[in-house]
Amino acid sequence: MSTERLYSLRMRAAQGGAHEEGGLHISGGEKLGVEEEIETLVGRLLDKALHHSRGTADFINLVIERVDASNCSVLSPLTVSTYKVSDYRAGRQKAVTQLRELSVSETAIMNAFNILSSAQNIRGAILLDSQSGERLDTRGDRGVRVSRMDWDQEQYASWIRRHPQFDSPRIAEALALATKVVHAQGTVAELCWSDDPDYVTGYVASMTKGYCRITHLKEEGDLSGGRVFFVSPGTSISGYVEYLERSLVWIG
């Protein structure tokens, strides 16, 4: 895709008022596209906000911003694997095992699961020190939002032809985000499961293991969820967050 006149589109939606006023987080979305694609991309983001399993949004914030395409990096998507488990207990044990193998401490793992199991209104990621388990960001329920990444559509079409079993907008979005996150200097791993009540699959992502889908990380109907990034001790958090929020990344 040509990166001339590139635009970043970012959406967040809530029910019961704006997030800052205590509204329940419904959904968010990230897109990159050229000027001719903006109308189509806006439509997709609005559809996501207005037709979501967590409810119908009555607050939608949409930002469209022209960005400097000359600073755009291109990253290959992480390899994808799927672990089928019988229930969320088995799924969480699988995630714990993977995180241990990535040298994340028991304390950090426990803290991450406690956060995600109780979180129902966090709209960004939580940053945890991979050894001490200490929270490294100071964003509260806002968390850190990973922005300005998307698939190159020609490359995505090619990828789907090779991996038709993963042809899903949900997987495409999550894989793009995880790919950007694990390439951040300081990332050890990501643990994520959706706060959508009807979607129970989650994942552990890392540079060495790739994007590892686990078919059950919570019970159906559960509104809890979110994402935790395990970060190496001594990482510059300001630089880490700057990369996640501001750097431009094409996946392809």
Automatic annotation (TrEMBL):
Superkingdom field: Bacteria
Pfam families in the record: BioW (PF03744)
This protein's pathway: Metabolic intermediate metabolism; pimeloyl-CoA biosynthesis; pimeloyl-CoA from pimelate: step 1/1
Required cofactor(s): Mg(2+)
E.C. designation(s): 6.2.1.14
InterPro entries in the cross-refs: BioW
Catalytic activity: heptanedioate + ATP + CoA = 6-carboxyhexanoyl-CoA + AMP + diphosphate
Molecular function as annotated in GO: 6-carboxyhexanoate-CoA ligase activity; ATP binding; magnesium ion binding
One GO term of the biological process aspect: biotin biosynthetic process
Protein task: Catalyzes the transformation of pimelate into pimeloyl-CoA with concomitant hydrolysis of ATP to AMP.
Binding partners and assembly: Homodimer.
Name under which the protein is recorded: 6-carboxyhexanoate--CoA ligase
